[in-house]
Amino acid sequence: MRTIRIALLFTFAVPAFGQVDYYFAPVSVTASRMTRVLASETREWLVLDEDAIRRMPAQSIPDILRFSGVDISRRGPVAQADFSLRGSSFEQVLVLVDGVRMNDPQTGHFISDFPVAVQDIERIEILSGQASSVFGPEGFGGVIHIHTRTPERTQTRAQLRGGSFRTAGGWMVQSLRTGRWRHLLSAGREKSDGYREETGLDAWTANVRAVFQTSRLHWSNSLSAGRRDFGANGFYAPYPSHEITGTGIVQSALDWQAGAQTRVRARLFGRRHDDEFVLDANRPGWYRNTHRSKALGAEVQVNRFFSERMEAAAGAEWCAEALASPRLGDHDRMRLAVFGEAARRSGRGILVNAGIRADRLDGFGIRVSPSAGAAAAFRRHWRWRVSAGSIFRQPTFTELFYDSPSNRGNPDLGPESGQSIDAGLSFRRGALSLDWTLFGRRETGPIDWVETAPAVWTVRNLNDRMLLGMSLGAGWRRDAWEFRGFFQEIAYTADPGLRSAKYAANATRTLLTVSAGWEWPHRIRPLISFGYRRRRMMPDLTLTDLRFSKSWKSFSLHLDIHNVFGRIVEEIPGVPLPGRYAMIQAEIVR
Fold it and tell me: What distance in Å separates the CA atoms of residue 17 and residue 562, rounded to the nearest whole number?
């Protein structure tokens, strides 16, 4: 309790992240199928715009999320990372890039294999809480939606970075506007020797985008690809492992204003992920896994505007997934879904929205996910909200079919499902924002790995469980001063079986992030970020990061010092993170 009281005091003494950097998208929001911001008022969601991202001491997308209230478990500074929202497992968070699902059917450990770089991002939307009625599987804890940059004018951006562990990288983004067409080409590469044996990295990304836009039509076509060759020492077993992953996304998306009251959106996409894993890099022929997963999907949605106060949406989605793997076998599955949602604001200002989605899953039948919410303003600067919905997730191919001396899948697994509810209050006045949320989640048949013999883990559906939690977010920014932060406390039901479950046993109870920035003479801007995490079965974790920035008209320079106090910590058991390290980056925009 003393830790909680101190954290609460610190959060309000140094107001923090909250939702100062809202970016209200003109077309859609992750919190809803609505094309307006209408239904998002009933949910807890945060939008980080490009300016907010640029101010963070972040070299990767997981870094950005770590400073934004997302629970991150990293396997090194720029290697793989697992995400958690509201006490979820890493498999229970849905990640999208421009609407394309990044969750791999093989395993959620690939969720951070982004084929885009930080330099490509326009904004990131983070929705906390249930999302199955909008997006289907995986939306237990929430959704992280990354939107890449749409070129607005002809421009060249270049960045160089280097620092500890002989890290060096460079990126270039070239945009071109010709008439109604907008083009973008982005490419970058980064290399590092790593901070211990088999933790080096050699990674690249490349993106091509072409957008045709008129007053009533927005047609976007994109191709994104990325490859990571990295040391995976201790990632999944106590060996100096090595891994190579590659991700590619191709997409064509159409947004058409068909009439004054009708809008049509359609999307066709494909995604491919390749993985080669060597258990012991010193004996590469001893144990090697190779996997290739593919996904092909299409979606169509129609929105109808009945008035400024009422909107409805309906649509359908299809997705086929396949895996080719000598270790897991060859498998495929298909998902069909139909969905609908409506939102209406009454004359008294009360907003009500409801949605429902039905997914037909190969091998698991039909899953129906309803949701509902309400919100209203009161006393000028205050707003209340409440929402509830059903959630579900189907097992990954690894959970179903993996077989090794230390990890064994279970083909008899059933989906995990549940219900989620939250209620909140928000305050907005000038530069100050406060947000308070209470939430609860009941999980039926949660999936986890259980130690069934010494050093042997088998995946199972565990006993039903519940969690209750609360979060506080706050933010204040004026002129050169900026304070941001996020606090979350979660209580889990007591279950003796959880002590032997690999991921539930290490779930986070307390999460706190605080950052403060100001301006020195000569327009040098320091920013300090502090993070604290208390987990169920592991030591507490604290990290402090610093950024010093200096900007000119078209040139900027940043010095980042990570883990300022040099603590050796583990966000994932058996994988120590580096002590203090530094990075410097320079960017020019012409």
Answer: 19
Cβ-based burial of 438 (10 A; exposed 0-12, middle 13-18, buried ≥19): middle
The pLDDT value given to residue 26: 43
The CA–CA distances, whole Å, from 436 to 41, 199, 349, 433, 489 equal: 14, 40, 21, 10, 12
- DSSP summary character for residue 395: P
- pTM of the entire structure? 0.92
Give ∠ CA 219-225-228 in degrees, rounded to 5.
155
Angle formed at CA 343 by CA 342 and CA 347, multiple of 5 degrees: 145
Q: Where are the beta strands (DSSP E) in 130-166?
A: 142-148, 155-163
* pLDDT tens, residue by residue, 53-70: 888 888 889 989 988 889
CA distance linking residue 292 with residue 274, whole number of Å: 5
pLDDT in tens, 147-187: 998 888 899 999 999 999 999 999 999 999 998 999 999 99
With beta carbons less than 8 A apart as the criterion, state whether 139 and 87 touch: no
Q: How far apart are CA 68 and CA 62, in angstroms?
A: 10
Please give the Cα distance from 237 to 200 (Å, whole number). Answer: 18
- Closest to 536 (Cα-Cα) out of 562, 502, 565, 587: 502
Query: Cβ(436)–Cβ(471) under 8 Å?
Result: yes
Pairing of strands 201-213, 181-192: antiparallel
Residues 6+ apart with CB under 8 A from 131: 94, 139, 142, 143, 389, 391
Residue ranges in the chain whose pLDDT is less than 50: 1-27, 496
pLDDT of 412: 93
**Rounded Cα distance, 89 and 109, in Å:** 11
31, 135, 503 from 39: Cα distances, Å: 7, 15, 33
Contacts by 521-529 with C-beta closer than 8 Å and gap 24+?
A: 522/550, 523/550, 523/551, 524/548, 524/549, 524/550, 525/480, 525/549, 525/550, 525/551, 527/55, 527/56, 527/57, 527/482, 529/56, 529/57, 529/67
